[in-house]
Amino acid sequence: MSIKRSLLSVPLRISTLAMVFFLMLGSQAFAANPDVSDSDEAVAAGKTIFNANCKSCHKLDQKYTGPALRGVSDRRSIDWAKSFIKNSQALIATGDAQANALYKEYNNLAMPAHEFLSDDDVMNLLSYIEYGDKAEAVVEGAAGEGAQVGGGSGVPSEYLTIIVAVLVVVLLLILIVLGLIISVLTKYLNNQKLDEEDDEFINQKFDVKKLFKSDAFLIIVTALVIALVAKTAIDGLYSVGIQQGYQPSQPIAFSHELHAGQYEIECQYCHTGVEIGKSANIPSANICMNCHTHIQNVGGKEGISTEIAKIYAAVDNNQPIEWVRVHNLPDLAYFNHSQHVAVGGIECQTCHGPIQEMEVVYQHSTLTMGWCIDCHRQTEIAAQGNEYYDKLMQLHAGSKDALKVKDIGGLECAKCHY
Amino acid sequence: MKFTHSINLVASFGLAFGLSSCGASGEKPGYEFAPQMYHSIAYEPLSQIRNEEEGGWLSTREDEKGEFYNSNPNNPHGMTMREPVANTVPRSNNGTLPYRLKAFELEKAALIENPVEFNDQVLAEGQQLYIQYCSTCHGLGGEGDGKAGEVIGGVANLKGGAYINLPEGHIFHVITAGKGRMLPHGSQISQERRWKIVHYVKQEIQKQ
Question: What region holds the Cytochrome c domain (chain B) (predicted)?
Answer without folding.
Answer: 121-205
